[in-house]
Amino acid sequence: MSTARPSVPGLLRLALDDDVLIATRDLVAGPVACSDGGVVDVVEAIELGHKVAARDLVDGDPVVRYGMPIGVATRPIARGQWVHTHNLASRYIVTFAHRGGVS
Amino acid sequence: MIVASTPPLVGYRRADGRIGIRDVIAVVYTVECARFVADSIAAGDDEVHVVGFGGCYPNDYAERMLHALCTHPNVGAVALVSLGCEGFDRERLQAVVRSSGRPCETFVIQERGGTRATIEHGRAWVRTTRRTMPDAPHDTFELSELVLGTICGGSDGTSGITANPSVGVAFDRFVAAGGTAIFEESGELIGCEYHMAGRAVTTSLAVEIEDRIRKAAAYYAAMGHGSFSPGNAEGGLTTLEEKALGAYSKSGSGPIHGVITPGQVAPAPGLYLLDVVPEGEPRWGYPNINDNAEIAELIACGAHVVLFTTGRGSVVGSAISPVIKVCANPETYRRMADDMDIDAGRILESATTIGQVADDLMALVEAVAAGQPTASERLGHREFVLTYKSAEPTGPSCLPIGVRGGR
Questions:
Q1: pLDDT bucket at B1, cuts 50 / 70 / 90
Q2: Residue A27 pairs with which residues in a beta bridge?
Q3: Which of B242, B345, B350 has its CB closest to that of A65?
Q4: Separation between Cα atoms, residue B391 and residue B213, nearest integer Å
Q5: Who's near A31: CB < 8 A, 6+ residues apart?
Q6: pLDDT tens across B69-114, in order?
Q7: What is the ipTM score, two decimals?
Q8: Which of A33, A69, B64, B382 could pair with B263 in a Cys bridge, judged by C-beta atoms 3.0 to 4.6 Å apart?
Q9: Residue A52 backbone dihedrals phi, psi, to 5 degrees
Q10: pLDDT of A2
Q11: pLDDT 10s digits, A15-54
Q12: Using the beta-carbon criterion (under 8 Å), do A93 and B191 form an inter-chain contact?
């Protein structure tokens, strides 16, 4: 069974110009190393697999993950904030989630 | 000539030339009313699998699916269990199975004297038939003869960065080596259609791919729900297009050779998209009500093994073909290791690469093809789902140049 190694960054940047970074483990608020070599001040707790804004976004901005748009920001989002159903919407169909998609 | 260092793979060669990696007896209920009897005939034998159709009204798609499943290379013999008055054409299914060279018998409950007598007759037939089947696999085959399917279920934010791209790399290598691979769920590829079209081997196929994904988007919009569950959101996925982006990576990066529909066997090796969404106005409800409905369709297209990636943690297997569970999320893997075959989440926690997980995956496919049971097989999972739907086989515009459609 593998164990988390401190050398693995807590945030993963999938593509150079992405607007979001992916948590590689559950994160608490504070500075977190990113796979691009930088450090992001994460402002709230983030669960494994969830997204953190890589830059400040304004309402209506397309949000890009792995080089592809995954929806549109529905309110201003600051770098380091959690990006999810409360501030990102599909351009195709409304997301169906219980409790806003938190576990 | 390259001499393999491992012993050759040995399987069950069928009359149509395809190779089986299992030798299952399928017990088929042709209406829900016959299901209890079918389950009772199969009870206690891991190599007797129950499939069937619950509806009493006839449905061409369901009949074609069962024709394909009962003549799947992993199936060696078939028992049909009918109540007697339902709409399903059991005579036609029996004729299709017998003409494939497989033993097949029909048990009509109303004619055999009810539940107890039919179970006894069915169990006796299974015992007798098993004695006529080979004791062990008997013909050698190359791994590239296999058809691999892939599906994701219970996806989360890790699926698209660990397990799915690992399957994609495995598919790239398998197809390059002459294998046949199928990825699916046109409804989970919404937003990826233009990129996908760019990988099509012909311009007519590129047009078909774009049209079929547009059709899927319209179909799901009419249903009022995308192919997206609350658990996807809890796992960090926010939108359908984000989920699609991750799902799409299962297809790898190589050329796409064709589009097929449920029950259609690929006419030549290559990489195929399985279009699961019916043509025309939405009329049967959701294209697939759950993961097992999709797995059954992949198997009906000839898949010998299904690579199932999961982040939240699915436990299902399938009747007919083994399901390999590729776990994307390292925390899920630790919680549910018993249900998982491959720990792809370690990519997030160690120096393990996607290429290394793809190596593990293909080594496991080879072991499973040689008879090693998967986690879901060991646990006894044999799920099967088939519902009302319409699906027509695709034609030349969807298939590789130089081959004729269908089989």
A1: very low
A2: A46
A3: B242
A4: 15
A5: A39, A40, A41, A42
A6: 999 999 999 999 999 999 999 999 999 999 999 999 999 999 999 9
A7: 0.88
A8: B64
A9: -125, 135
A10: 44
A11: 999 999 999 999 999 999 999 999 999 999 999 999 999 9
A12: no
Q: What is the reported pTM?
A: 0.93
CB contact under 8 Å between A71 and B157, yes or no, is: no
Task: Output the CA angle B295-B261-B200, nearest 5 degrees.
Answer: 110
Helix (H, G, I), strand (E, B) or coil at B104: strand
User: How far is the C-alpha of B372 from the C-alpha of B4, rounded, in Å?
Assistant: 19
Partners of A68 on chain B (C-beta within 8 Å) are 191-192, 241, 245
At residue A3, the pLDDT reads 47
Q: What is the edge-to-edge ordering of all strands in the sheet holding A68-73? A: A62-65, A68-73, A88-89
Q: Which of B254, B269, B335, B265 is nearest to B64 (CA)?
A: B265
The greatest distance separating any two alpha carbons of chain A, rounded to the nearest whole angstrom, comes to: 43
What is the token pair recorded at A72?
């549109």
Residues of chain B found within 8 Å of residue A95, distances taken between Cβ atoms: 226, 228, 233, 238-240
How many cross-chain Cβ pairs, A to B, lie less than 8 Å apart?
126
Sheet holding B9-13, edge to edge: B19-20, B9-13, B139-141
Query: Which chain A positions have a beta carbon within 8 Å of B157's beta carbon?
Result: 22-23, 48-51
Q: Are strands A30-33 and A88-89 parallel, antiparallel or unpaired?
A: unpaired
Tokens of B329: 């999320």
Amino acid at B305: V
Closest residue of chain B to A3, computed from CA coordinates: B349
**Helix axis angle, B60-70 to B90-99, nearest 10°:** 30
